[in-house]
Amino acid sequence: xxxxxxxxxxxxxxxxxxxxxxxxQFLPLTSEQSMLCETLQRLxxxxxxxxxxxxxxxxxxxxxxxxxxxxxxxxxxxxxxxEGRNTAPAVAIAALSALEQDKxxxxxxxxxxxxxxxxNVFHASLHVASQSAQxxxxxxxxxxxxxxxxxxxxxxxxxxxxxSSEPCVMAVEQFVEKPDASTAxxxxxxxxxxxxSGMFMFKASCYLDELxxxxxxxxxxxxxxxxxxxxxxxxxxxxxxxxxxIKGDSIDYAVMEKTDKAVVVPLDAGWNxxxxxxxxxxxxxxxxxxxxxxxxxxxxxxxxxxxxxEHRLVAALGVQDQVIIETADAVLxxxxxKAQEVKRIVERLKLDERSERIxxxxxxxxxxNYESIxxxxxxxxxxxxxxxxxxxxxxxxxxxxxxWVVVTGxxxxxxxxxxxxxxxxxxxxxxxxxxxxxxxSTDVPLEIIEVQTGIYLNEDDIIRxxxxxxx
Length: 471
What we know:
The protein is an alpha/beta fold. It has 3 domains: about 1-270, Spore Coat Polysaccharide Biosynthesis Protein SpsA, Chain A; about 275-345, no CATH class; about 360-465, Jelly Rolls (Sandwich), CATH 2.60.120. The chain has a 6-stranded antiparallel beta sheet, with no helix packed on it. Strands 6-9-7-8-12 form a 5-stranded mixed β-barrel. The mean pLDDT is about 95. Helix 3 (about 85-100) crosses helix 6 (about 205-215), helix 3 crosses helix 7 and helix 6 crosses helix 7. A hairpin with a 2-residue loop joins strand 21 (about 370-375) and strand 22 (about 380-385).
């Protein structure tokens, strides 16, 4: 069985913690591990498990690679999408990759941002699903609903679910959109509806056969994008022209609603898609007065609140049913019943072209990270951390000069034709237009303070001459 991990979402309803350049699947929201790592960890113990295929946005490629490396997981491939095109083409391209491993490849498709609490039940459901998938069925996992939730789509099966029975396979009668409250209530009462989890299992060849029948143009473009891809280490860079012609669609719309091979395996394993702050609250450990707190938080005379501090002290007094999220550059305050609507704030940020939609103050790069400390007219101060053995590109700037001061570690600096070493408390100056590079050839992190001065200080003022990361 080949795990296919879909890691392309933006998680905008968890803003300001989840942002376009560092979305929720890469964050440690429910444990010390990121959600991507948790997704892979919950597969441990399964027999005959192959190397995973991860599908992600191209801008997240180094986040994925670094987190997999931290887990000592070697992927079969990391497929890079130029832009998101929904799940149907993502899984089709993963299926083409899987068939290179095994013509009878069995795929387990998992989003990278779910929580599943009961792994024994989850593994038992996978075992039942695999038997059906091996017989040519397209299996989806229907979560046994805990409440009449209006934020999920539903799957209607051909029989009523019996909680006391062993995991089983049911025929799918219908996929339905997110219902209103009264309709969701009727689904719960009926007993034959499940939340649509977005998890699947099927043979790669069976999925591609059904996609050819029901969305042949999409499959043709996926094949062109995959066959024309450039392969760089574990990365598969899809051919851009063909991929951008693909009309995005979900697996449900493109295949599952049309095929006669769809079946559903009920899953009652403590599933949650962490789609909002209220959903994260539901899977968090509550403290006194049903409050959930994280970070440096003081809370008094308050009830049923989720308060999270990432950067500084947050104090809450006399509030109820609130979500309060603090980061270095943004604070969100919302009532819990509005938590699903945080996306509206993100849309406003997009209209206003605000960078807080995309980046945190700390920005991660394949070589390490940088954080803006202070800025004003014609200057910007950054704290830069370079990972052991890492190197920035050989570059120059047309509009800014840079002053570097080493705080900890040893820097190898290329400055024009000169190469030098700088130690703690030593500094150098990079004039406008000079080629330069910063490297850390030691086995400990390098930290420097960079002061930029000039008339234009944006990140697009970089001309690269050599870059080990292919940017």
